[in-house]
């Protein structure tokens, strides 16, 4: 989806959401906004964040929390 088209859709949904008190309608519009943003976002290569790969084995901690070799 083109960015300009996505912004147009988002503006319409935001305006409609701000003019209602119906929580179901607002939730539906927020869901639609998320879909539009996901479609408009550039595709990226999947990656594994460092925090998912676990701690570095060279940074092992002793039972008192000090790094091994720092005493």
Please give a structural write-up.
With 71 residues, this protein is mainly alpha-helical. The chain has a domain of 43 residues. It has 2 helices and no strands. Helix 1 packs antiparallel against helix 2. The longest helix is centred in the middle third of the chain and has 18 residues. It is elongated and about 60 Å long. The mean pLDDT is 76.
Q: Tell me the fraction of residues in β-strands, as a range.
A: under 5%
Overall pLDDT: 76
The secondary structure category is mainly alpha
What's the overall geometry? elongated
Tell me the distance between the termini. Answer: 58 Å
Contiguous low-pLDDT stretches (5 residues minimum) are none
Element pattern in H and E: HH
The total of helices stands at 2
Helical content band: 40-55%
Number of strands: 0
**What's the Cα radius of gyration?**
23 Å
Q: What characterizes the major β-sheet?
A: none
Summarize the structure.
Residues 48-71 are annotated as: Disordered. The chain has 71 residues and is mostly helical.
Write the layout of secondary structure elements.
Blueprint: H1 3-18, H2 23-40
Helix pairs in contact: 1-2
Region (Disordered): 48-71
What labels would you give this structure?
71 residues; mainly alpha; 48% helix; 0% strand
